[in-house]
């Protein structure tokens, strides 16, 4: 399923237009993204939790030259499904 299919099913489920359903989905995704960028977690009971996971810089080796270098510290998004979603 892609985003277009999801918007169509959301519009059918909520008995609204696809344009309105697309706006709702885009708004939801923008809010989740903004919260993760701020370092907060987004918990959706019964579905799961989105977490901003910080990864510190570390030593690494270039496989071509063998030279050691430091990787950049970064924050990535992680999703942990709830128990109810895992059981499905």
Automatic annotation (TrEMBL):
GO MF annotations, alphabetized: DNA binding; structural constituent of chromatin
| Keyword vocabulary terms for this entry | DNA condensation, DNA-binding
| Organism of provenance | Algimonas arctica
Its GO biological process terms?
chromosome condensation
Q: What is the lineage of its organism?
A: Bacteria, Pseudomonadati, Pseudomonadota, Alphaproteobacteria, Maricaulales
Gene Ontology cellular component terms for the protein in this record: cytosol
| Family of this protein | Belongs to the bacterial histone-like protein family.
Which domain of life does the UniProt lineage start with? Bacteria
InterPro entries named in the record: Hist_DNA-bd (IPR000119), IHF-like_DNA-bd_dom_sf (IPR010992)
- The answer on whether this UniProt entry bears the keyword Ion transport reads no
Q: What protein name applies here?
A: Transcriptional regulator
Positions of region (Disordered): 56-88
């Amino acid at each position: 399923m892609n985003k277009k299919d999801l918007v169509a099913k959301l519009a059918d489920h909520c008995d609204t237009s696809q344009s309105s359903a697309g706006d709702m989905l885009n708004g939801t995704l923008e809010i989740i993204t903004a919260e993760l960028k701020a370092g907060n977690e987004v918990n959706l009971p019964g579905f799961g939790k989105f977490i901003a996971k910080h990864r510190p810089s570390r030593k690494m080796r270039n496989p071509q030259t063998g030279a050691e270098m430091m990787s950049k510290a970064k924050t990535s998004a992680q999703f942990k499904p709830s128990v109810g979603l895992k059981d499905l």
